[in-house]
């Protein structure tokens, strides 16, 4: 089951950028990645089609991108905003068209399940997110959700019947844009008590609490409800995700798709520098105490340390300088 769905997701990802996969090539790819013959034959012993509808998938990606608070080709879709709510409605609509059983939890993680013949077994899940940082692209996260739904559609069109249930998940707030908390929905599903405590006091830049923001999007949360998002350890048999490459390596080497063998473990540090204001011409260099220059020296030191570390896959960067105040 897992290799089968993985193969379909790989085909879906490849089809998003490569047209014209014939059935025989699709079958060969299935067998190569699954490790067993693709034997779900149709009538008369002929193999049923396993063809991704790349035109439909691209159309859905483009339609979802229209739910944005910034003009095309960029996408801005912040957690619990009106555009986020519209995107959620769009995803649930596709799930229902596929005949999936759709539900949402207290924070808006969305689940579309194709119930298998042995529904008591842990499900095989796949999916990603559709929230988008300001002025981002239209594929990040989206391919993992719409691609997964297209994989389900391919399986349905082929006549495949799952033993384990297959579930597509749209996670709430993978991006930290609104509340500074990344992977919010999935971390709650994983049972983070620390996150539950944090969300009870979290506010955004406009002093809107997480609970009030959720309420504005139709999720009426009592703080105690957050524990209901937690999953049992045996809820899923496996999880896989289709995702775009967010760097240049595969594209540079002409490789259409790859399998992840490791994952980044980002950590961020916020540092505050205090200095003294002074007239740009009259306060001379020996008397200056410029906070910006000190911050620049730290940024350069971080870059130098990483470059000299010898690691080929470690990144150290300064993402943002905030100017808190100027006093003259």
UniProtKB/TrEMBL annotation:
Record-linked NCBIfam families: hydantase
Organism: Aegilops tauschii subsp. strangulata
The keyword Signal is annotated on this UniProt entry: yes
Native organism taxonomy: Eukaryota, Viridiplantae, Streptophyta, Embryophyta, Tracheophyta
Top-level taxon of origin: Eukaryota
Biological process, per Gene Ontology: purine nucleobase metabolic process
Stated role: Involved in the catabolism of purine nucleotides. The sequential activity of AAH, UGLYAH and UAH allows a complete purine breakdown without the intermediate generation of urea.
Keyword Signal: yes
Signal peptide bounds: 1-20
SUPFAM superfamilies, alphabetized: Bacterial exopeptidase dimerisation domain, Zn-dependent exopeptidases
Key words of the record: Hydrolase, Manganese, Metal-binding, Purine metabolism, Signal
Cofactor(s) required for function per UniProt: Mn(2+)
Protein name: Ureidoglycolate hydrolase
MF terms (GO), sorted A to Z: hydrolase activity, acting on carbon-nitrogen (but not peptide) bonds, in linear amidines; metal ion binding
Subunit relationships: Homodimer.
